[in-house]
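Re-running the complex after MR caught last week's input typo. The corrected sequence lines follow. Everything else is unchanged.
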Amino acid sequence: MIPLSHFLFISATLFCIGIYAVLSKKNAIMVLIGIEFMLNAAILNFVAFGKYDKFNASGQVFALFAIVLAAAAVAVSLAIILNVYQYYKTIDPTRINKLKD
Amino acid sequence: METLTQDTISLLAIVAALMPLLSFAGILLVPGDRNRGSFFSILNISTSLVLSIIVFINVWNKPQLHQQIEWFTIGDWHFRVGILLNNLSALMLLLISFIATLVHIYSTKYMEGDPYIFRYWAYLGLFCFSMLGLVITDNLLLLYMFWELVGFSSYLLIGFWFTRDTAVQANKKAFIMNRLGDLGFLTGIMILFTQFQTLDINLLFGSGGFFEHARVQDGLWTFSSNNMNAVWLTVAGLAFFFGATAKSAQFPLHTWLPDAMEGPTSVSSLIHAATMVAAGVFLIARIYPVFNADVLLVIASIGAFTAFMAASIALTQNDIKRILAFSTISQLGFMMLAMGVGAVAPSIFHLVTHAFFKCLLFLAAGAVIHEMHHVKEEKGLDFDHQDIRFMGGLRKHMPITFATMLLASLALVGIPLTSGYLSKDAILIQSFEWSATQSAWAKIIPYSALFTSWLTAFYVARLVFKVFFGELRLNALFNQSFSLHEAPSAMKFVLIILALFCLFPVFSLNPLHYEHAWITEGLPYISGIARVNIFHTLIPATVNIAAVFLMYLAYKWYADNQKAPDFSGSPLFKFSQNLWYMDKLYKSVFVNGIVGLSKASFSFDKGVIDGIVNLFGSIGVVLASIACWFDRKVIDGLVNATATFSRTLGSFVRHFQTGRLQHYLLFMMLIVLSFFVFKYFSHAI
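Corrected-run output:
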């Protein structure tokens, strides 16, 4: 049986990769992928901790719920990126600094 | 004439007094050319004269005439004013209007060509009005008003040539000196009013008047239910006398009169003869009962001293008008002396005779000055045309002036057959008679008067001989031959009329006995003086023998071309020439004293008062700068510090606001991480 700590390591690694991608990529799509990494890291934790749950499979249910939410979030994010591209003619987040206004 | 009612006489007297006021108002209110006024003034003053003659005839040696109207009422107390005509006021009324008329006529020639002559006539009118009003009024308050008016109009006349600085100084001096005297007069009025609740002269001083009912007992001055410390009676007498002192130019307030010579000579003659200086003597005669024995002694002493002092000054003066001015002071001293010894009638008698001969002396001197000035202007020379040292030998050029002036001088000296002999010897004899009953010290008074009358003889003789005898000194001075002319006929005519009044028949048919003079008989005779027969022969003889000798000496020295001995180095001469240093003393004590006081006040004001104010100012400034510093540094500092802090904070924080999504996320992560670190290590801590 695979111990819990392995899951947590993988989850943490995934999260770190996600964070790295989000913070360093010069492409909004890649940032989005980073976000998905982090989401999946969290989902993995849900599933891993689900083993110790008092209720049956509530971790898995919550993971499924989160995946659905992530899919919805990706849809919204892509729509935002599309609009950003139309407006700025670029999706490089380092060149979009209008948030400071 | 005899049938005139009292109302008519009063009315005539009032009109006589008001006529000169009409000239004053008429000339100043009706515009016209600058030479206007002479005819109008002479017409008015002549009307006054005619009315005065009528009044005089109807009043002289008749019961006195006293009429009043109510002026104002305060509560149930009525203030009544009116006119009081008795022998004294009728005589003065006549004298003043007569002299004034002559002076008016004289002035037509003397003042001819003056650019502002209309003002001269107007002021002269005001002057005569004040003096005429002064003598007929029956009330001390009105008397005081006219007294002030006399002072004011003399101020106008003395400063008539107001472009000369000396004239301006002189009229200020006269006015201020007279104001000092007015203070005394006012004090006297207030004391009398407090005691008697009336200022009516007849009620106070008339026969059966309040003064006869008032008693002095046990140091209290009592009248009906009013009590007052007896010293107030003396104070009142001294106060009134002080008033008279200023007006009549007695020591110590005499210094204005010589300076008043800056006015036109005709004005001087009016001031010295009938108006102004006569007012003081008149006042004393009018309110005579107010003076008690102590005050009378003071009056006599001051009179004697003034007479002697002025005569001694007159010895060394060189200005023809100043000599006459000091002679007036001296003669006024005689009048005061007579008042002091109780010889009221001789005093007034001397006032009248003196009025004529002094007026004549001045007008004759005016004629001389007029001619000298004429020469000076014509030839364009530069010399003092009033200085007797430049004159001489004028009797050949101006015989009428010489003859009249000689007559007036003899009257002034008191040579028999002149009017002055009668009045002056009356004063001398009565003062000797008075001193017979007095203490030893009081005997100095008649002897000093006797000595003074010798001095008079000498200085008058010196004046006449220097001006009219010898040779005209101008000739030698400028190496030219000048010829002077007799005065114009208007002036000559006046001189001749006045000269007639210097002779004895006008006053007494007996040339040697003053007691039979009609003026002496008509005035209240104070009978307290015992007649001492020996004086009546001895004194006139002594006076006249010495006077004739002194005049002969003066003739030798000044007329007979003998060299006069030179006294100019002696201290007495200097003392006399510098007017006994009286003016200098007044200047250094009073004028400089007041100037010094003002300067002290000024420096006190400057130093202390201003210092305190400035100190408060400086304290305010210091406080304000402290507040300013506090405001700038502390209050503003706090505000600025807040602002600076916010700005620094802002500019620090703005670095995080890059506008890049990834930076924001990075910071978010760092903050979350730091929370973790903090939570983690806080357990360790």
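None of the earlier attempt is carried over here. The helical segments of chain A are 4-24, 28-50, 58-88. The mean pLDDT of chain A is 88.
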